[in-house]
Amino acid sequence: MKINYTELKKYFIKAMISNKCPKVVADDVCDALINASLMGIDSHGINLFETYINNIRNKRIKSKNKIKFNKKKTFLLVDGNNNFSHFVAQRTLEKAYKIAKKNGICLASVSNVDHYAAAGIHGYNFLEKRKLNNLSIMSFTNADSLATSTYPKKRFFGTNPISYVLRRSQGKYIYIDMSTTQITFNKVKNIRKANSYLSNNLARDKFGKITKYPSKVFSLEPIGGYKGFVLGLLVELMTSGITGSNVSNQILPMYGEDQKSFRKISQCFILFNFDILKTNGFDNIYKQMEKNLPKKYFKLIPGNKEMDMLTYRKKNGIPIDNEYLKIIKNL
Questions:
Q1: How many whole angstroms separate alpha carbon 298 and alpha carbon 291?
Q2: Which end of the chain is more exposed for a tag (fewer CB within 10 A), N or C?
Q3: Helix, strand, coil % (nearest 5) of the chain?
Q4: CATH number at residue 155
Q5: In terms of residue numbers, what domain contains 269?
Q6: How far apart are the C-alpha atoms of 222 and 229, rounded to whole Å?
């Protein structure tokens, strides 16, 4: 079935407040999950909601904790204090924007947070609410160890995603959001739930062999083989490398036996304020792609496909499993 996104948000907000989460925090969490699903990023959208509620109940996430900020020139050091990453991200971007507005750039390093859903959604939500053009937001996060390492039987880095978001003229977006693995574990869970199989070369079992069975997945293949492993390292350098907090292999699993201990994930946001340069070649890049690619393939360009899906689902609703909707309504 499909459900209207505004109706879904009411369920989410009600459930979070009933679990003693402040509304200002609940708003940011729900916006992140719902907008991800509206864009078609179902692995990091509304399907995570039950997990987040359980995180509150298990006290893995402290939704009333205050965030700590420490500004150092064009750097912003942020201690999320184990609050929701989505709420921490929006407060961080608010302060980082003030720095970038003045200096052209700001790097914000965030420690002591948890899973933050789709990497690019935080930049999109921040830019869209304020209708800010010519401000790009890059985002990185490390995660628990799931990616196959250079040794096929060993995993080391997480899916360690990279995102780049910029609002172009006329409200159009560049929206790049990708994990450094071929597939995410949340997508593996969705495939398993659908009683389906993985495509070739996406994941390995505990013996280091490629598997198509979701239930046997031990590690996820990096994009581009060795180059994907290197990209995972790059994200690790930009996150735990700056904060000095847990490296991917030290982070507790999202769905492991211990659901109460803090995971101490690190994130990073880099803001570029291009208004200072008074140049803008972004629209021309997209104009050239539109000019040189067939229409149906131009629609697949990052930013185009997400905004097309967002428009479609706002009108027609977000797909949701009947059983999952019942769970949400009873949280």
A1: 9
A2: N
A3: 45, 20, 40
A4: 3.30.1370.60
A5: 2-276
A6: 6
Q: Which uninterrupted H or E stretch holds 265? A: strand 265-273
| Domain assignment present for 286 | no
Q: How far apart are CA 276 and CA 134, in angstroms?
A: 9
Query: What are 163's strand-pairing partners?
Result: 139, 177
Q: How many domains does the chain have?
A: 1
Read off the amino acid at residue 126.
F
Q: What is the pLDDT at residue 99?
A: 98
* Residue 132, phi then psi, degrees to nearest 5: -95, 120
> pLDDT tens, 276-316?
998 779 999 999 999 999 999 999 999 999 999 999 999 99
Q: Which amino acid is at 107?
A: L
Distance of CA 117 to the CA centre of its chain: 4
Rounded to the nearest 5 degrees, what angle is found at the Cα of 78, between the Cα atoms of 77 and 83?
170
Distance CA 62, CA 213 (A): 36
Model confidence, pTM: 0.94
User: Could you tell me if residue 192 is inside a domain?
Assistant: yes
